[in-house]
Design a protein that fits this description.
alpha/beta; two-component regulatory system; CheY-like_superfamily; phosphoprotein; 5-stranded antiparallel beta sheet; Heat Shock Protein 90; 10 strands; Chemotaxis protein CheY; 5-stranded parallel beta sheet; Rossmann fold; about 40% helix; disordered C terminus
């Protein structure tokens, strides 16, 4: 069973997060009150995932993320954010956090974020050595109007990313999650043509998406993922058949808006994880590039 360490100096918030995750029958929980205590526990128990508050005494969430990247790089971290801390959360993503969840909507977002990360982390370890031997890959997947195929495709991408030196397991998971966000953006804002500056709540957004998905022309549209990976870099070109995605239409306060509307979070997470991100509205494409860590530090090993 996966072990999740919840780190928060507030007993109420620890209990809330723990109560939400206890409903997931295959998760074991442990708790810490600050980053320093969390590091001590991680050294002895090695959890599969850390869920941490940002603002804590002794060692805050940002410092904890940095320390984990240095001392335990294979342990992913999800940050819980309070109102007004969105910019710090974005910084946490840049230095290694695997995701963030607003505290105001923990009940609807935390279990989903944890499950998504575990799904992305569950690639068959028996394939690890085989994919480390892969020298290069050039493949295309075309998904019809069926978003249920996005998750298994992300799992497959995570497996083949083993041939790209990324430094550690957590970074490979982060890249796969970012590709997943790109696929959802192409589906929702490309093929379904849902406005980037919409004011839907998350539940309203899902309702509109389901309705749009069942109507023409969305029913006939597909998305394509062209993946090219070698030892130097991975390039993911996501194509769709809807209207071009014009990111200039995103709200100017994107980070704070994404804290309340998780359907915008991909636009924050992708540039925090990928080395290059470009949207080509005329070509109806999203292009994501991740460089091998050996290009930046030859001493790092394959993940």
């Amino acid at each position: 069973m996966p072990n999740v360490l919840i780190v928060d100096d507030s007993g109420i918030d620890r209990a809330l997060a723990g109560g939400l995750l206890e409903r997931e029958e295959d998760i074991i929980l442990s708790f810490a009150t600050n980053g320093r205590e969390a590091l001590d526990q991680i050294s002895s128990t090695r959890p599969d995932l850390v869920v941490s508050d940002l603002q804590m005494p002794e060692m805050n969430g940002l410092e904890l993320v940095a320390a984990l990247r240095e001392e335990h790089p294979s342990v992913p971290v999800i940050i819980m954010t309070a109102l007004g801390s969105e910019k710090i959360a974005a910084e946490a993503l840049k230095i290694g956090a695997s995701g963030y969840v607003p505290k105001a909507s923990l009940s609807s977002h935390l279990p989903q974020a944890v499950r998504r990360l575990f799904d992305a982390s569950s690639a068959d370890r028996l394939h690890s050595r085989l994919f480390h031997s892969l020298q290069d890959l050039d493949c295309r997947f075309r998904l019809q109007n069926d978003p249920e195929l996005i998750s298994p495709l992300v799992d497959r991408i995570q497996e083949v990313l083993r041939c790209l030196p990324l430094g550690d397991e957590a970074e490979r998971v982060r890249v796969a999650v970012a590709v997943g966000h790109g696929l959802w953006i192409a589906h929702h804002h490309g093929n379904l043509e849902l406005a980037l500056n919409g004011h839907w709540t998350d539940s309203e957004f899902q309702e509109v998406a389901i309705q749009q998905r069942m109507e023409s022309p969305a029913t006939e549209r597909s998305i394509e993922l062209h993946t090219v990976i070698n030892r130097e870099q991975a390039t993911f070109t996501i194509s769709h058949e809807g209207a071009g995605i014009d990111v200039s239409r995103l709200p100017p306060d994107l980070e704070s808006q994404a804290a309340d509307r998780s359907w915008l979070s991909g636009f924050v997470m992708i540039p925090a994880i990928m080395d290059e991100v470009s949207y080509a509205p005329a070509e109806k494409k999203i292009i994501l590039v991740k460089q091998a860590v050996q290009a930046r530090d030859d001493d790092l090993e394959f993940s």
